[in-house]
């Protein structure tokens, strides 16, 4: 079993600021979300359910901080993998969504309506993110441990599309939330999506992703 989770809410998520490869801290809500995810796994273990035996994270601190909460509850360490890092937004990083909509309107409009064909100045494309995910996924298939993977919005969306054999044009049609996870299983030498967005463990801690700079 594989749990593919997005990190908890960050202070930049709250203010509608593009993060990309820059660092931003978990918000107070993000910390509580991370703890709720960790509690979900510790309660699962107490109930005899399958729980992670390995935790792998993007190297950015919003992911490692989220991952560490679950790892600590399970008595595990946290591995990091560069292939799980967020999409490089290039010149957009550190800037606010509303400001970009006003000052880089053509690219912003294209990102919202035709994301598969956007190349960020000094950044990367969704095709590059998908290639990173596929490389990481091939390693997941080759191993057998139940694994918690903590990464970013763009990586999770690309993974979901890949698992459903859908095109990158459908990027915004996937469901991804802070500290929620996609449930994936290994089957017949490949990965199979069981559930796209599991968030019941968050109860009243779900963030409003519509206000975030994604």
Textual characterization of the structure:
The chain has a single domain, classed as Phosphoglycerate mutase-like (Rossmann fold), CATH 3.40.50.1240. The mean pLDDT is 97. A 6-stranded mixed beta sheet has the order 3-2-4-1-5-6, sandwiched between helices. The chain contains 7 helices and 6 strands. The two termini are 28 Å apart. By secondary structure, the chain is of the alpha/beta class. The chain is 38% helix and 15% strand. The longest helix is centred in the N-terminal third of the chain and has 19 residues. α2 packs parallel to α3, α4 packs across α5 and α6 packs across α7.
Topology:
Blueprint: E1 2-6, H1 11-15, H2 28-46, E2 54-57, H3 61-74, E3 79-80, H4 97-103, H5 105-113, H6 126-142, E4 147-151, H7 153-163, E5 181-187, E6 190-198
Parallel strand pairs: 1-4, 2-3, 2-4
Antiparallel strand pairs: 1-5, 5-6
Helix pairs in contact: 2-3, 4-5, 6-7
Bin the helical content.
25-40%
Overall spatial form? globular
Which second-level CATH architecture applies?
A: 3-Layer(aba) Sandwich
Q: What is the straight-line distance between the termini?
A: 28 Å
**Major β-sheet strand ordering:** 3-2-4-1-5-6
Find the count of extended strands (DSSP E, 2+ residues): 6
Q: How would a crystallographer describe the biggest sheet?
A: 6 strands, mixed
Strand content: 5-15%
> Helix/strand-derived class?
alpha/beta
Q: List unreliable stretches of 5+ residues.
A: none
Rg over CA atoms, rounded to whole Å, is 16 Å
